[in-house]
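Table S2 (text version). Query chain:
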Amino acid sequence: MKKSNLLLIVTFAVLLGITLMYLLPSSERESTYSIENIAVKFDSASIKKIEIKKNEAGKSVTLENIDGKWKLTSPVNALADNAAVEKILGGAGKFKIANLISSKPEKQQQFQVDSTGTELTLTDKSGKATKLIIGKNGPTYVESYVRLPKSNDVYLAEGFESWSINKEVKDWRDKMIYKTERDSVQEISIQWNIPTDAKKKSTPEQFILSKNNAQWSLNGDSIDNDKVNSMLSYLSNFRTDDFIDSTVVLPEILLSLQLKTKNASANTEEATMLLYPHPSDSTKYWVKNSSDNQLYQITKWMAQNIMKKRSDFIEEKKK
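Corresponding structure-token output:
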């Protein structure tokens, strides 16, 4: 091909591109500024407040770092789940805009960055607040579509995943009912069917599991260590499925579990778990830890792993 013909083709292509740019309506053109000019950066160590607003009921929360601890301050006052908060902070530290996807307002719904998106506001210790509309996940699990609230531009960005932001309120809360090192437990007192009415005559089943030189015994009789350790694997990392924040009338206590542990200083510590049958749902139980006033709700499966009777550890002698 002659150089003169090649030059004509290149010139025609350039002129065609310029012509099309000016013929297209302004809403059809992409923004002319570079992605480098979109100054959205976060110092994750400086973030002190996280606000997540979702039109969908039950998914809007405010989390704040208060005296070094992350807490929910809306819609409830409670300790926050550190892993869930760290996921947001980690995403903020890695946040990076990759590509401009569209500047068309009508495309916002497609990428779920319209009213169906989630408004994420991160506020640092200086009081500077940065807002993003987080849409659906992108092509990879580390990407999502985002938009600045006062802009029509939709970007593909790395850092935040919609699944880590769009949680139920209960999933932002610390679900730990009780936690200790399994090997630190020295004694477990188990008492069933505790009457709340002193006039009622009842002989509840009661026994004590105690450990001496790594061997567990029940009321002095040696038992299989594995059976106790199986129970402790759940009890030492006792987590709830949900929280009961409303005022309820508690039924009679079904089971009391009192644990004695040795801390790092060899001092004895005690904790008591109280289990109640759910008044209207046989697949759930209510739990209270004596150290706080929160009422928790666990599944029947979880309850069955800690609600042990004497016969679960030692065979009854035949008469």
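Notes on Table S2: Residues 14-36 have pLDDT under 50 and may be disordered. The CA atoms of residues 286 and 297 lie 5 Å apart.
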